Amino acid sequence: MVEDLDDVFHALAHEARRSMLRRLAASELTVGELAEPLHMSLAAASKHVKVLEHAGLVDRTVAGRRHVCRLNARPLSGATAWLRFYEEFWDTRLDALRDVLEEEKP
Asked: What is the pLDDT of residue 33?
């Protein structure tokens, strides 16, 4: 599980891959369609897609020369759960800070 989580965070670490995932949330796209708005070569886009595939975030099917990608959001649930712990941590800390600051008001 930890290894999978590492792969997910690694995949999310690059803006191009996050952009690809956002666009795949709306519809299936080919690797070429993913590359176009990012102004990158097909080879570069394919490398990014491979990172997303390795993390389980993208499923790719090959039909002839077309490589069609679709989002698999399931691995994001582990990342969300991990981040939720820190959200609760910071909510508690910020609530305590607010209480201290309110006590100091004249």
From this structure: 96
